[in-house]
Structure formats: structure tokens, C-alpha cells
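Reader question, answered in our methods column.
A reader sent in the components of a multi-part assembly and asked whether the whole thing could be modeled at once rather than chain by chain. We filled in our standard form and ran it. Here is what they sent:
COMPLEX SIZE: two components
ENTRIES:
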Amino acid sequence: GENVEQHPSTLSVQEGDSAVIKCTYSDSASNYFPWYKQELGKGPQLIIDIRSNVGEKKDQRIAVTLNKTAKHFSLHITETQPEDSAVYFCAASSPGGGYNKLIFGAGTRLAVHP
Amino acid sequence: EPEVTQTPSHQVTQMGQEVILRCVPISNHLYFYWYRQILGQKVEFLVSFYNNEISEKSEIFDDQFSVERPDGSNFTLKIRSTKLEDSAMYFCASSARQGAGEQYFGPGTRLTVT
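And here is the structure of the entire assembly that came back:
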């Protein structure tokens, strides 16, 4: 079945630096790639997503890139702030059955130091 | 902004007991999901539900699990006879569209089986 690998597991940056988190997926039929931010004690919050017909998407300080040939996608956060500190999960979804279960990566704990 | 809600936030139960976890999806959403996250591990898909039917379920979702939409607003997950290994965070999610649609997660219910 589909598998999603995520790296790094932890990431520590200084405020104002950029952070990059990378994921690879195994199912070439995957067509939807969301990123979620999870703060302590809360549910995953959708922050950005990309579909397979697009190579890059940007929303203010966050961007996602997708390389379908290599089957990997990345989250880029620029000008990081302490409130960006959280666990970030990538996910991939395949169209099988049409109901699109999400397969998650293991998560990246991002710490932004003032 | 509409959001998915879940109750209770924390449920403690003894092994062998039945538990019901409750979710209220976003009101105009039609596709519903349950995921779980064992402490320190990935978020895992359990089941998807549409039009009063299970559309897909994972290997985790065995005969001890069931889902129901008893009325127009609630979506429930029942575990018939809990095991120690059922201890996890359980997240409900909902989506407005079929296919590669955004899934919005609730805050989760922490289930502790003793």
C-alpha cells in the first residue's frame, strides 16, 4: 500500500531563518498532498495543500513544491517565527474508491528559537 | 469559522468495556473519517463514511469497531470491547467534496484503556 516517508524528524532553526521539510511517497497514483500543523493538545490543522497538476503553491510565508517524477514534495517556511513551532505532517492521498483516505508521514517537530 | 468538534476530550475506560466517541462534522460536509494516533506515532486512517455507508476501512478497523451517523449532525465511533492497544488519540475529520478534497480535523479524543 501507499507509504509516506518524512524527513527530518526534528528541525531546529533561529527566528527569521527558513525551514524545509521533505516527504516522499510510494504510490504514483497519488494526486493530493496536504500539509498539517499540529500544536500540543490540538488536532491537525490544514495549512496548505497541492494537487498533482501543479508544481508549486505559495501562501504568504509557506510554500509547497511537488516533483511527480521523483515522487517527493516539500514544505518551505520562510521568515520563521516562534509561533511556527509545532509538529508538521505531510500526507498523500490516492484516488482509489474516490473517498481519499490520507496516508501520513511520521511528522517533523519544528522548533523556532527567538 | 466552522470547525469539527469532538467529545469527550479524554475518555478513560477499563479493558473490555465499550466506548463511543462522538464527532460533529462541519455542517455542509458529506464525507467523514476517523483516524487515530498512538502516542509518538503516525496518524493512521481507520475508516471513511459517506451516504450512511462505510466506503473504506483499514486493517485496524476490525469487528470491534463500528461507525454510525445516528442523526443529521453526529458521527460516532464505537469500540465494542476495548483493548490496551486501543489507547490513542482518535481524530474525526470531514470533507465537503469527493476526490482530492480538503479534510478538516477535530481536536481529538484521548482514549486511555486501563
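What stands out: The mean pLDDT of chain A is 93. The CA atoms of residues 18 and 78 of chain A lie 4 Å apart.
Send us your own complexes using the same form.
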